[in-house]
Amino acid sequence: MCGRFVLVTDLSVIAKEFDIPGVSIHFSPSRNVSPGQHIPAIVKVDRQNFLKSFLWGLIPFWAKDPSIGAKMINARAETIAQKPSFKNAFAKRRCLIPADGFYEWKPEGKKKIPYYFSLKNEEPFVFAGLYERWVAPDQKPVDTCTIVTTQANAVVGPIHDRMPVIVPKDAHRLWLDGDIQDAARLQDILKPYPAGEMACREAGKIG
Questions:
Q1: What are the CA-CA distances from residue 182 to residues 13, 151, 185 (Å)?
Q2: Threshold 0.90, pTM exceeds
Q3: Among residues 2, 95, 132, 145, which one is catalytic?
Q4: Superfamily of domain 5-202
Q5: How far apart are CA 161 and CA 154, in angstroms?
């Protein structure tokens, strides 16, 4: 799973990388980004990329109770094309969630030791995400998202059996293009990131 990540790169850098015309959302750099917080994500609307803010924890548009979002911080790559909670977003509402790294915990005795994972070159990257708009009873819209996970690679595997999907640069456009609904092409993106390009270290205290 992915339950905590790091984003300290300024959003202006992300905007430049994705040809986004400007940054209109606020996000404070954090080394402990957590579910239930608003996080930035890249979406494509009318062929233009934008940075938008989403609550981390997807609430399906058909949900009656928004508390379901707390259980929807991750979506398994293997089942998102079939699960009612995710299949509509997988088909039409995909996003990229920027990050500098993420954490996983390894049980050691009665403790859980956090480990930090990043790219070896320490550059920011993007997770595969899905997003939805849920309308509250008072008609106020709530924009939410989830991070897609897959099987762990050889770097993450000794700590946890799952890892977030890191989308390679050559697949950014495909993942963001809501007009593309070919499940096979999209599923091909949802693979463990090459282990040789990643680094891991014990994280110490978080937060």
A1: 31, 22, 6
A2: yes
A3: 2
A4: SOS response associated peptidase-like (3.90.1680.10)
A5: 10
Instruction: Using pLDDT thresholds of 50, 70 and 90, give the confidence band for residue 204.
Output: confident
Instruction: Find the catalytic residue in 17, 78, 104, 145.
Output: 104
Give residue-wise pLDDT tens across range 80-134: 999 999 999 999 999 999 999 999 999 888 888 999 999 999 999 999 999 999 9
Distances in whole angstroms, Cα of residue 67 to Cα of each of 4, 56, 57, 76: 19, 12, 9, 19
Q: How many helices (H) and strands (E) does the chain have?
A: 4, 12
Is 104 among the residues known to form the active site?
yes
pLDDT in tens, 43-68: 999 999 999 999 999 999 999 999 99
Identity at 65, one-letter amino acid code:
D
Question: Is 2 tagged catalytic?
Answer: yes
